[in-house]
Amino acid sequence: MSTAAKPIFTKGEDCKPSWHDASAGYNETDTHLEIMGKPVMERWETPYMHSLATVAASKGGRVLEIGFGMAIAATKIESYPIEEHWIIECNDGVFARLENWAKAQPHKVVPLKGLWENVVPTLPDNHFDGILYDTYPLSEDTWHTHQFDFIKGHTHRLLKSGGVLTYCNLTSWGELLKTKYDNIEKMFEETQVPHLLQAGFKKEKISTTTMDIAPPTECKYYSFNKMITPTIVKD
Q1: What residues does 64 pair with on adjacent strands?
Q2: pLDDT at 82
Q3: Which residues contact 183 (CB under 8 A, 6 or more apart)?
Q4: Element holding 148 (H helix, E strand)
């Protein structure tokens, strides 16, 4: 239990300056990705990643994905009848994997290298039918809030009318469900929805579904038995 009890970030920790060229540690069986000792992604998340991908691709057209990881969501998005798939990834090793993966996909893939904070402002207005935001927090300071910087600053501008946003911050939500909440819908309602409303989305356009999941006992960032998929539609 000692590893599970240890917080993902120590007070004041900031990985951002070194993250882009830190080694992308994919294990031999391709079930885990670690960067700078952080558990970025694990393959048991697959059913949940597929749920997010299904929402992001639900309008077809042009999909923006932020964070490539292990290509779990990306590969699912490619299975749908979309037109273009734009993907932002900042880590060098993960991006190399993305470029290689892109060659074999059925739809046009546009790989974009860099931190989303630098890339997103260069993207056109009203350009995307769907957005999936799933990046790893890069500092203790932004552990629970980095998704809101993106959502409040950019999603309304990037999405077409009727476009859909979905996202997660499992590293944050896993911690909240360990320490503050035993109900995942209540967690989302209290910690996420106020920020979505501030971003300009309407309450009636925000919905969620939950799924049962069984994280491995050794997982450091998530131990709750459910996961939640948001669907947020722009008017």
Answers
A1: 86, 131
A2: 98
A3: none
A4: helix 146-150
212 residue type, one letter: D
What is the helix (H) or strand (E) element at residue 216, kind and residue range? none
DSSP secondary structure of 104-138: T-SSEEEEEES-HHHHGGGSPTT-EEEEEE-----
The structure's pTM equals 0.93
Alpha-carbon span 126 to 159, nearest angstrom: 5
Closest CA to 85 of 69, 104, 102: 102
**What's residue 1's pLDDT?**
32
Tokens of residue 204, six digits: 């009636």
Strand partners, 112: 88
pLDDT digits 0-9 by tens, 111-156: 999 999 999 999 999 999 999 999 887 787 788 888 999 999 999 9
HSE at residue 75, side-chain half, CA atoms within 13 A, is 11
User: Of the candidates 161, 160, 163, 138, which has an alpha carbon nearest to the alpha carbon of residue 149?
Assistant: 138
Q: Which pLDDT does position 225 carry in this prediction?
A: 97
> Which one is predicted more confidently, 37 or 79?
79
CB burial of 17-55 (b: ≥16 within 10 Å; e: otherwise) equals eebbebebebeeeeebbbbbebbbbbeebeebbbbbbbb
What is the b/e burial string over 77-103, where b = at least 16 CB atoms within 10 angstroms of the residue's CB?
A: bbebebeebbbbbbbebbbebbeebbe
Instruction: Return d(Cα 59, Cα 163) in angstroms, integer.
Output: 7
Q: In the structure encoding, which two tokens stand for residue 109, read together?
A: 């893939």
Q: Which two tokens stand for residue 215?
A: 């994280």
Q: Is the pLDDT of residue 4 over 50?
A: no
CA atoms within 13 A on the CB side of 31: 4
Round to whole Å and give the CA distance between 55 and 76: 11
Tokens standing for residue 221: 């960032």
